[in-house]
Amino acid sequence: MNKQRHVRIILFAAAGLCVGIFFASVALGSVSLPFFKLLQALAEGPFEVVSTAGRIVWYVRLPRTLACMLAGAALAVSGVIVQNVLSNRLASPSIIGVNAGAGLAVTICCALGWFSGWLIAGFSFLGALLAVLLVAISAQQIRASRTTVILGGVAVNSCLNAASEAIAILIPEAGMQAADFRVGGFSSVAFPRLLPAAILIVLGLLLVISLTNELEIIGLGEETAQGLGMSVGKMRTLFLALAALLAGASVSFAGLLGFVGLIVPHIGRRLVCGEASKLLPFCILSGAAFVCGCDLLARTLFSPFEIPVGILISFLGGPFFLFLLLRRKGGFGS
Amino acid sequence: MIELHQLTAGYEHKAVLKGIDLQFETGKITVLVGPNGCGKSTLLKTIVRLVEIDHGQILIDSCPISSLSAPLLAQRVAYCAQNRKAPEMEVLKMILHGRFAYLRYPRRYRPEDLAIARQALHWANLDAYAEERVSKLSGGMQQKAYLAMALAQDAETILLDEPTSYLDIVHQLRLMELVRTLAQANKAVVMVLHDLTMALEMADHLVVMKEGQILFQGNPKIHDPSLSIEEAFEVKLERIAVPHGWHYHFRLRSEGEEK
User: Fold this and answer.
1) From the CA of A234, how many Å to the nearest CA of chain B?
2) What was the ipTM of the complex prediction?
3) CATH number for domain B2-252, candidates 3.30.70.100, 3.40.50.300, 3.40.50.1220, 3.20.20.70
4) Tens digits of per-residue pLDDT, B195-220?
5) Is the CB of residue A216 less than 8 Å away from at least one CB of chain B?
6) Do B124 and B151 contact (CB within 8 A), yes or no?
7) What confidence tens digit (pLDDT) does each residue in A321-332 have?
8) What is this structure's pTM?
9) Cα-flanking dihedrals φ and ψ of residue B22, to 5°?
């Protein structure tokens, strides 16, 4: 019973943190809004905004905060899926080329002058899907070791990033926001671009939550999962498609945010155990809080200057992850 | 009852199993032995459709396995793979996943599933470890947890691929005790074992394999498998009568010694 309580406390703490950071993110920035003023601005609603505070909240801060939270949750869950399906704790959407595939698709969209939210989100998903299937199917065909999967993913990642760079250089329209896109950032997020991706992310998260037991079982390995009555091939494809959907949708508005899909699931495994039924809620809440918190710092630390959130995520996430690794003798998985 | 008729199967057109005829009966322990690469694990994997059949067929109660869906097959046959992971999952939760084949989407475990999982946990003497993570358990305990998961599957046949590998002798013996209780509960237990002494002691039906074919099958307490074992492993085997059965002594063949 103690352990169940421990997990519950951590999940409540993550939820509390998430709510706290949400309000802080909406209230704080170049113009800080006191709590009462913030509530007044929120009460105006999205369609009858009259005050300056209302415009700041509804047109700038709220879309940005929601974008951060959705991207954080989606990337963290995508990381859990990729790690479970490939049985590899080193895998994450940014390492095995899923984000890069989505990035290339977004760059192609920009080069072709397609800026519709739905088109960008859809193409981003397709790019991510192609990348993840390329890595997963080739790994399965040659029965690749865990290290080979990662190395293959890194190679795919590198090729796709190179293709994006080449397009951005050759077609200047595609590279206009390249710097912000490459490291990840939310400075240009608005509701019209966010909405399609947000719908895809919410649907994807709901579907993953409904497949919690399947995600746990596939993590036991192909042979055990098959022995338990799962059609492993179909389920693996479904999960990889969901991972691509979540990562692709978030890349479509947040750019190539790395690291979230790797560190959040690892922290979750340390704190609440590796069971998907506990890990998924933790990753959704803490992924959202982590990215939103980093974005808040990114735009307030050096105000009036703003640094892309991807840089801050790496700055904060890297040392924290190293701390977790080094605290455990032999590292993770030992 | 599972029947294998003229079964030929393998990987990418390379036949590992060549025309196997075999039956697994309920209430009996069948032990598969043979040198590395002779097809023991492939045989178990073919039954759970991890390896495709090239020729012949596998029948479960006269029904071809190809006609069963994955969950229906899992309700009939439980399989403990050789490559077992040590997940960061609570022991009871892992055992509960043995009930997966009985559920439909969105698969949520019912109170009766939990009750069956708890019974399996108790059967494996793991009550005290219900909330422990499997990854924190010793190899022997992990093996018991996998066996309990197979039991929770409530299948008539249980396939165990090298269940005693990496276990010390105490854990091996405890595990074999559990396996014996499974057979007493009228399950058909099929095991791949590398320890020939243990295989000869445990088997109600011993199957000696070499290069994808069966050299011997039968009850080793009634029929002497020594010659087939010698041929399969290329060793010398002495079978010595002792008060409660047989003692087996293995040694390498010396040069020039007759087969």
Assistant:
1) 11
2) 0.90
3) 3.40.50.300
4) 999 999 999 999 999 999 999 999 99
5) yes
6) yes
7) 777 667 665 554
8) 0.89
9) -160, 150
